[in-house]
Amino acid sequence: MSVALRIVLVLASVFACVYVIHKIRRSQMKIESAIYWVFLSGMILLFSLFPQVIIFFAELLGVESPVNILYLIMIFLALWKIFSLSLRNSRLEYQIGILAREFAILNKQESDKDEKEQDAGRAADEGADHHTGV
Amino acid sequence: MKVLIIIPAYNEELNIERVVDELTLNYSQYDYIVVNDGSRDSTAEICRKRRYNLLDLPINLGLSGAVQAGMCYALKNGYDAAIQFDGDRQHRPEYIAEMLRVMEEEKADIVIGSRFIRKKKDNTLRMLGSNVISGIIRLSTGQKLTDPTSGMRLYNKRLLRDFAGEMNYGPEPDTISYLMKCGYKVREVEVKMDERIAGESYFSFMRSIRYMVLMVFSILFIQHFRKK
How far apart are CA B110 and CA B228, in angstroms? Predict the structure, then answer.
């Protein structure tokens, strides 16, 4: 890995980390979802500060250019994240569907009750009118 | 048998009154519910003004979501069966009695109103799609469905429970195919349907393509790996 690339990676990962923390401070991100990004940028920072780790794995797997290992790890983590988001999205859609219909059913029960009371009130009024002979 | 007619309605201000009025006037022996699927037009206002039995979804869930909401309502209100009935005047209520009869006499779990029991399908793109789905259902289950995309379907109580509670139970051909594989009894009854006269369909061209890809993928591949 060239020194220039290492500098870029260090800057990028530090910036990513700062940005995520900034988002938490402004209450735009939950801590649970921030953990992934902080760890990811921490890992990239580690690899660019100590490229020996990457070189070790590159030799182990027979990859000529050590930086390819870094890319491989990043792509793998990104795909895994997309998959877990897709999973979460499915669940959210399902849950929103349930919420929407429960809301609609409750709403209907309320308005049915109101209508019944109104009808009953009207009937009572008419009954009273009869009594007074109006 | 206490049956509920579920009428999913998305932007059906031009049709909804005629559909419901026909039911209340000539078929008052059946209960119905209009499920307004977050329409952007005045469908909900019309229903409220006319005091129709209305389930008003706060957001748009799509056809499956609207029908499932109706099924949930049917279940909570003690119905024994529910029929999906389009809000665009394509379905005719005179066939409901026959569908109920078949459900009771043949102990069927699902009864589908089919346009093509004796009549041949036209040579349109839409009917090609219908043929493809029929073919893959036959391949997958060994049973014949002449009109798998028909939206006029009667479900019994056992199925209402599944549809109301489970994920991946949209009232669509892939679920029907899966249920057939699980041993549920699906029957078809010959019906006539009218062409849509007013309003826009749920299915635009791109949506239809996506629908077909999803159905083929789901019936041929995914449904084999589902729990029975």
Answer: 17
Q: Is B55 on the interface with A (CB under 8 A)?
A: yes
What's the predicted TM-score (pTM) here?
0.82
ipTM: 0.76
User: Which residues on chain A place their C-beta less than 8 Å from a C-beta of chain B?
Assistant: 90, 94, 96-97, 100-105, 107-108, 115
B58 reaches A (C-beta below 8 A)? yes
The DSSP output letter for B195 is: P
> Of all residues in chain B, what percent carry a pLDDT higher than 90?
72
Q: Which amino acid is at B73?
A: Y
Residues A60 and A130: their CA atoms lie apart, in Å, by: 98
The minimum CA-CA distance between A64 and chain B, rounded to whole Å, is: 39
Instruction: Kindly list the residues from chain A whose CB atom is less than 8 angstroms away from the CB atom of residue B167.
Output: 90, 94
The residues facing B55 across adjacent strands are B35
- The alpha-helical segments, DSSP class H, found in chain B are 16-26, 43-49, 62-76, 96-105, 125-141, 157-165, 173-181, 205-220
B72 in A contact zone (CB under 8 Å):
yes
Tokens 């988001």, located at residue: A85
Q: What is the average per-residue pLDDT within B140-156?
A: 93
User: DSSP strand E in chain B: where?
Assistant: 3-9, 31-37, 54-57, 81-84, 110-114, 153-156, 186-190
CB proximity B40 to A under 8 Å: no
Cα A17 to chain centroid distance, Å, stands at: 18
The distance in angstroms from the start CA to the end CA of chain B is: 28
Record: contact A108-B55, CB cut-off 8 A = yes
Per-residue pLDDT of chain A (134 residues; tens, 9 = 90+): 789 999 999 999 999 999 998 888 888 888 888 889 999 999 999 999 999 999 999 999 998 888 899 999 999 999 999 999 999 999 999 999 999 999 999 999 998 888 888 888 888 777 666 555 44
